[in-house]
Write the structure tokens for this entry.
Amino acid sequence: MLIVDQLRRDDARLRVVAVVVLVGIAILTAGLWRLQVMAAGRYTRSEEAQSVRLVRVPAVRGKILDRNGFALAENRPSYDVNLYLEELRPSFVHEYTNRVLREARAQRESGKFTLAERLQLQEQARLNVYSNTIMTVSSGLGVPLSVSQDGFLRHYRQALALPLPIVDNLDSSQMALFFERCRGVPGIDLEVQAVRSYPFGRLAGHVLGHLQRSDEADNDPDLLIFRYRLKDYQGVAGVESKFDEALRGRAGVKALRVNSQGYRHEEWYLHPTELGRDVQLTIDVPIQLASERALSRIAGSATRGAVVVMDVRNGDLLALVSAPAFDPNSFLGRMSPEEFQELNDGKLRPQMNRAVSGAYAPGSIFKVIVGLAALEAGVMDPLESHEYLGYWPMGGRSPPIKDTAPAGFYDFKRAFKRSSNAYFIDHGIKVGRERIVAVAQQFGLGEKNGYPLGTEVRGFLPDAENLERLRARGDPWTEGDTALLSIGQGAVAVTPLQMAVMTAAVANGGKVLEPRLVLGIGGQGDEKPQSFAPQIRSEVGIQARHLQRVREAMLADVEEDEGTGREAALPGMRVCGKTGTAEVKQGRVLVDKITWFVAFAPFESPRYAVVVVVESGGSGGRTCAPVARQIFQAIQQREGAGRPPAEDQGTAAPRSASKPLPTPAGLYAGLAAGREVSP
Amino acid sequence: MKGAEFSLRPARVAWALLGAAFLLMAVGLCFVHSSTLGDTSTTMKQVIWFGVGLTAAVLLCFVDYHVLARWAWVGYWGSIVLLLAVMVFGVSRNGARRWIDLGPLQLQPSEFAKLAVLFALAQFLSRPIEELRLTNVVFKSMAIVLLPFMLILKEPDLGSSLVLLPMMLAMMFVAGVPASILAKIMGVGAVIGGLLVADVLFAPENWRLIKLKDYQRHRLMVYFGKDFVPANATPEQKAYYRELQRHKGWNVQQALISVGSGGLAGKGWRQGTQNTLGYLPRLGAHNDFIFSVIAEESGFIGSVTVVGLYTVILFSGLMIAGQARDRLGRLIAVGVISLWFAHVFINVGMNIGLVPVTGIPLPLLSYGGSAAVCALLALGILQNVHLYRRSY
């Protein structure tokens, strides 16, 4: 050993000391190697575990746009006042030493406090500072704020590193007061947060769906253990739910470094949030708005019904209305008991989307199917007239089926436009249940039509399978049942969406379209834009001349003198339609009426299918036809200004919202004044 | 080997010793600054202490150590008086009465006592080697150390008293006390130490022969990983003892995390989070736990460099001891080396969990006036022995 050798050779004892020193140094070096090189990772993790807290930061949700780029769901800034506790530490110390401790000393003989007593006094000091700060903010903003000591203590224990929320959502005058009076109050600061907002309120609420508070999500980055999760929402209905993953984006991860007492020291992002993607719908806000207004004129907020407006060329849903509606905004905050009551009203059922989940007896609009079946089967010569009595006598002890059409001679067109029950029962019985059902099935009745949000019901058709079920219940099919089926009553139920698909197929020459609600999903980050092309589900196997015959009859129903749908007539646009009034009976008592109007326009080159259904209406012609007329009118106004709503075929990705769009308020005003509002 | 033979004129200054000392002082100032979160006034005070210590060390070199040794007993009894004075007039911090308040500055007599004992023992042991076999001489030399040892232990300052023991053993060993006698002394010491630890850890409360302070007992329990919870504790007591254990183990745990998380290259000067965020004890970070701050911020590379600088000083001291003119010089040098070594080993060992926590400064790195001045005085004495090695 070189160093030891340098000592005098005879100096054995000094050499022993040298060896002891060397061994000691070697032990220390080995200990340092073990800690700082071999176990460095472990200690780095413990260091992070005790001083770093991960916070889940939700991303800003994507917007939901209508086909023109109007935001149906967007994010507005909310200005919240927060209390940052780490900035109050000097105040805590000051309060403790200068007030609390002195007062406590003054009350006692001996000056010594135990540790527990001192901790108690320190907590008291913090509470004092907190209460004073709240009072300052409260008087500054002119808002009564309650001092929640328990809340403060809980926050102090559990989430010290996070700011403590004081007031949410300041309005502009409170903002002004804040800047005038509260700036400079220690620990107090303003934070801007994105809050979901539905600027049109109830408009298309059923399509949009709503959110529900949910701080945890499936699409979290990796498997991180979050100490804290910031307020987040998850879609639980409608587009918000179906496209939740795309809309939600990816939550970010914020790391907070805290000191030994748990106060925030610094923060940084491990993962930035990734904005949610925008979803663009086929809905056209002006048409949707016109449809909702037209429908609600019937009985105001008590109106129960639905409207579907579909582009007959590609299946785009331009409007999908269900009344009564709900305001998705009301799900974001705390709901009042009244609101909750209203939302869960057993009769109004505002949360149900009647346009796809409502299965109704079709009534006379089913005559479109029966007529086509009879024409196809060759059991009906449309030009041949027959005499009917003004009712249909049922065999046996059953009462006759009454008819709104008077006794007289009817050919197909007259029977259709006057909605003669006798004519259609006569021919329906000749065609038979089986062939009627077959045609109905070709038009997509009795099955789900592919509404993307999934709440669709199938309706009901007396097909072989259901017939078997009825027979098993001891309710065999009779000719009387066929008679009822021929006028859309009895064992048949359809949804408004199915009727729109049917009407569109009649109008477009037999193409059964898949209803399209979403045009596309915008790109964001690595995600490419995605678009959904129109889909034809099938073609009906019906001769074109027969479809033409029905279209002419529908035109007559609106345009000719005797037509039941005359109230849908609109100058400048040739509307074709069919009314329906289905009676809902319990036993033999009439309890309710379902009124319908199905229509398309223009006759020459069909473009729009409109279906209106109203529960407890008067009659299809009086109740629903005017609604359809108002909707066509709105369409006509949009077209008249040279910019029809469905101008692009909708295959493009959502347009950027960078170009100036009219504000919702402006749009409302524009529509109210009957002006065209063009984006 | 060659350096000494080839130089015509022997070096008067131990350059390696001086260089290492200055580097350590520089490192010390940097990390006192860092560990006090950039408190310039504390750093400046330390600069002043270094200045005082350096001046004293230089002045010391003007007087031959033989002359100094004549005053050894005056110094010894003077420091005993000071240690007694501490017991009466001393000011206490954190329950320990270690300082004498002199207005603007506070004196820590135990630091100066270490040097006084060193000188007295060297003077006593430098008698003819044959006398060192006599039992009463051995006992006397032990008594010279044990008197201040007990006084310092009483303050209480376990660390400062303990460093006297290896110093005593090393000096007696090098002086030529027979190894068999030393072995007996160490054997008895080990038995007493073992009994003490066993007593603290395993004996029931009322059986304890030696009354340690609670915090000393807790430190030992933490070091030996002994569960704080008594066997038949109620749930409330259990919770209390768990919290106590966590609390008592906190400093060691945080020191380990600091050193370990420093890794190979460290987090950078003033970038250590353990200290800035208050995980290391705020009162200890710039003195007893300064090594944790250095290790965290400069990593394995930095901490090994620091240990290397100490090694340079220790071996320069050993060389000086080897080349000393007489047994007195040799013993003084060995005393200084063993004292420094004990400080470094115990302090660094405590920071990396090898040694139980005892409050003991790291020479030239820890903040503290008396300690800094005494460390520099000790180096001055070494230099003195080096300087006067040939002046016959």
